[in-house]
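Sorry, any thoughts here?
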Amino acid sequence: MRAAVLREYNGDLSLQDVPDPVCPADGVVLKVLACGICRSDWHGWVGEHPKVKPGDIPGHEYCGEVVEAGPLANWRVGDRVIAPFILSCGSCPDCRSGHSNSCAHQLVPGFGRPGAYAEYIAVPHAHNLTRLPDTLSPVLAAGLGCRVTTAWHALTGRAALQAGEWLAVHGTGGIGLSVLLLGRALGARVIVVDIVPERLEHALSLGAELAFDARDGDVAQRIIAATGRGAHVSVEALGIPATTNASIECLRPLGRHVQVGLPTGHTATMQINMNAVYMKQLAVYGTRGMPSWRYPSLLDLIERGVVDVRPIVAREVPLSAASVELRAFGGPMPPGVAVISEFRG
């Protein structure tokens, strides 16, 4: 099969033919229909994720068609499925308690096992998969494996966002746009923060009530001034100190900060304004992925037209363009995300 292989950090991925994957007994082999290019992939590409090594195939945000099913997998050839990026074991205490995104034995494609920048991918623990609705294109569905699901769980499974609350979003990449669209669908008043004017304008066109350029001074104080007391919920979507502290500091007393951006490599440990956490008695939540059993609640909103995820995807690219897209994460980016939809090119 054709795959894009990491040969050296910060270098172009190598397009090459590699052996087809072997089907796990409890899993499936998918023909990859689409795979998102995510900032988490970039962290691995630059060498800042401990599980990503030269020789690996990236890609964790994918959907596909079953071409082979193991004897213990409850799927058939021809089924089209969405795959969460966290493949939980299904039997550990976390899985049994409904928190499969905290599974102690989880597997993550692209991070320690072959990913989906390839024509085919082996997916163990196929109980995690969800059927792809006929109304949802593979390109849009690819984002449901990571960005949209992560945003949904951050807002509903962690922060318990309520209608009418002020929601601040720091960073308007794939996660940030997902938080904006879902927050609006839940009835929140959304404020977005970024440093790229085009992205701020795009967010306003999608329903953000306010948009602040973080280069124009103390964004936390501007959010407090605009809302009266501060945001009720604030989501950090980049994983860097400046936006993490801005997210914490923009909250009102008893507000909720949700850390969605991935802190890894040189940002794994950062200096945080804990005095703000203490004085305002804030709640600080970490979140990563979404338990697979929560897919129906999200798919129901999408299928009923309550939320439109189409604005998240800005461009479809061939596999050969993955390196260009990864390199772009190192600087200011245009609105929307890229999805690989052609795997021979």
Notes: The two ends are 12 Å apart (CA to CA). DSSP finds eleven helices and 15 strands in the chain.
